[in-house]
Structures are given as C-alpha cells and as structure tokens.
Amino acid sequence: MAELAALWIVRHGESTANVAATAAETSGAELIDLTHRDADVPLSDTGEEQARATARWLAGLPAERRPDVAVVSPYLRAVRTAELALAGTGIPASRDERLRDRELGILDGLTGHGVQRRFPEEAARRRRLGKFYYRPPGGESWTDLALRLRALLGDLRRDHEGQRVLLFGHDALVFMLRYLVDGLTEAELMALTREHVIANCSVTGWSADPGGRLVLDTFNDVTHLRRQGARPTREDEVHAEPV
Asked: Which residues of the chain have pLDDT under 50?
C-alpha cells in the first residue's frame, strides 16, 4: 500500500468552549454555558497564543522535515489554529469534514453530571456497551470516527504518496489515529484514553521507517509551546466528552 513519508496531527488551541466546560464541570453544573454551535466555537486568547507558538515551531523545522500539505477540520477552532500556525509557511491547506469533532447528539452541551441527571438511561447504556461502541442518540460512536478516518487516510495515501501531511483536528481524532495507524486493540485504545488527556496544540506524529511503515515519533507533545513561551493547557483544563 502507498504510504506517507510523515503524518502529524495537531489538536486545536484552547477554545472558549474548553474554558466554559472546565468551569461547568468544576462547579457541578449540568449544562455548559455555550453561546455558539460546536462548529463555530472560537479560540480563547490562550488558544491563539498556543497556535502562534505552533507557527514558530513549524517555521523552525528543517526543510526536509516540514509538512508538504495540511488538512484541516472545518470547525472554527481548528481552522483558526491552522491559519495562525501556518501563517508565512507557504504550506497549502484544505478542509475536510471527516476531521470534524465527534458528534455527541442529545448529550451535546452537557457535563458528566448533567448526563447522569438528565439521561440516566444513556449513562447506563454507555457503561454497558463501553466507550468504544456507545453511540449517543443523534451522535457518533468512536467506531464511527474510525470509519471516516479510515476513508481519509486512504485518500491521503493515494493523493499524497511519499509526502509529509499535517492534520489539524480534535482530541478524539488523535486517539483514533493512534488506534488506526498503530494498530491498537480496543483495550489498548481505552487504556490510552484513561492515561492521557490530549492537550491543546499538542503534536502527535509518525514517520515512515525504511520499509515504508508509519512509526510513532511523538505523542501529545507540548514541548514546542514551552520553548516558545506559550502556556500549555493544564490537564484539568482540557475538557473531554461528558460520558
């Protein structure tokens, strides 16, 4: 199978919804105070700073390591991260809806406490099915993410064979790329989600080995933010899905 020379995914910078979700979870609220639909959530000031720090990291890469092309989630927080991170690099970028965030359906906008209070039957169904296969009404399961990412990876391998590709997306996509590219099992993936929170503007990347197989180089790395003087989002500030 045709393969890429390198693949990276950058999670978007901290968003205003990340900030609101952290506040809601901390206070025990049932609802997250959101003023935008999920696709239109902007970056916070910290998120913009993180994206600019990512731009300085990209600009400092040697020519033989720089991405040839970028593909971006159409959600505003990812688009803005890519705009800032790619500014002045000359790296061409396109958008692909398969990189959008996981859709939570009727659970959208709820905290974990809110799901337990308002949809206890869904919380119970999720516990029974497990995180990997559970699909909230009107939303997506993690396996649904796998389907769209499999299709995307196939297109990238066909259209950008031998090139270095940079993706801008969301936390669940980082985990699912680990699952697909590294060939993880369900149990291994779920262990990874328990052990790690994907940081805003973190970098996860793979490079092709001599046999052409993508091998993990870095995972959830925010070293570039610290080096550039940007504040990494603490783990307790990064809001994950409610259930």
From this structure: 1, 240
In sign, the C-alpha dihedral spanning 173, 175, 177, 179 is negative
Q: What pLDDT, on a 0 to 100 scale, did the predictor assign at position 236?
A: 56
d(CA 163, CA 71): 13
CA 193 to chain centre: 12
| pLDDT tens profile 150-201 | 999 999 999 999 999 999 999 999 999 999 999 999 999 999 999 999 999 9
- What does DSSP assign to residue 13? P
Pairing of β 214-221 and β 203-208: antiparallel
The tokens for 51 are 């994206």
Q: State which H helix or E strand residue 125 sits in.
A: helix 120-129
> Which pTM was predicted?
0.94
Q: Around Cβ 176, how many Cβ atoms within 10 Å?
A: 25
Length of the chain: 243
Q: Give the other-Cβ count within 10 Å of 73's Cβ.
A: 25
Q: How far apart are CA 49 and CA 31, in angstroms?
A: 28
Can you tell me the distance from the alpha carbon of 193 to that of 200, in angstroms, rounded to the nearest whole number? 15
CA 133 to chain centre: 19
Mean per-residue pLDDT of the chain: 94
Per-residue pLDDT, 1: 44
CB atoms within 10 A of CB 88: 8
